[in-house]
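Chapter summary example.
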Amino acid sequence: MTESKDEQRNGRRRARAASPRGSSLRKTGRAKRSADADDARRIALVVAAAALDKKALAVEILDVVGKVDYADFLVLMTGRSNRHVDSLAQSIEEACAKEKTRALSVEGSSSGSWVLIDFGDVVVHVFQEEARGLYDIEGLWLDAKRLPVPGQNP
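The structure predicted for these 154 residues follows.
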């Protein structure tokens, strides 16, 4: 038995009316945001671990979810010299590549006093001590939560 086009349309309308369209879309969006934030948190921890393996100093992970629209986490660290800053940046990129995450952009590697690596939801700042004090990014985000960095002495 075949339905007429009007019967098919009416059946679809009834099915749509019976489904809670808005709430399922909101739940799906919320679940996706939560999964994205969990993935960003995982990448931030991978970055911190890679930095600590290369003897980075003062590694901090700032949770800026809902505070900025360009990232969920900022990872800050200090290197002892130009070579150390470059080595940290390279090690971080390699560790994230193993996790199938590639940097969208890397800036400042030629100067060596501050390298910025953009992984999308995670932005990494690798400073020399003088540059870190000058730009004081931690001071800009005093209200941001800090994630504990595994393997770092408090």
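To summarize the output: The chain is about 50% helix and 20% strand.
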